[in-house]
Amino acid sequence: MIGFLKDNIGTIVTGLVVLGVVILIVVNMRKDKKKNKSSCGCNCAGCAMAGACHSNKKDN
Q1: Is the pTM of this model over 0.70?
Q2: Which one, of 58, 34, 16, 23, lies nearest residue 8 by Cα?
Q3: Are the CB atoms for 60 and 54 separated by under 8 Å?
Q4: What integer pLDDT is reported at residue 27 of this predicted model?
């Protein structure tokens, strides 16, 4: 087991860093979704797909 860790420490550390970044992205996307922010990062006024993007929202 120790030999495996020594031989693959670079891959393990890189994988953990990538996993951490992915987790942060998902958490940020969930926060934005709860705040009704767009995931594309731009406003809908200048977007050609504005009508299609938000057509499924229902007003309560």
Answers
A1: no
A2: 16
A3: no
A4: 95
| CA proximity to 40, closest of 51, 52, 31, 53 | 53
| Residue 57 pLDDT level (bands cut at 50, 70, 90) | low
Query: In the chain, at which residue ranges do the beta strands (DSSP E only) sit?
Result: none
Structure tokens of 47? 């977007």
Which residue type occupies 2? I
> Both tokens of residue 15?
């994988």
Please answer whether residues 53 and 47 qualify as being in contact, where contact means their C-beta atoms are separated by less than 8 angstroms. yes
Give the rounded distance of the alpha carbon of 54 from its chain centre.
19
- CA angle, corner 29, sides to 28 and 30, nearest 5? 90
Letter for the amino acid at 57?
K
Which tens digits make up the pLDDT trace of 22-40? 999 999 989 988 887 766 6
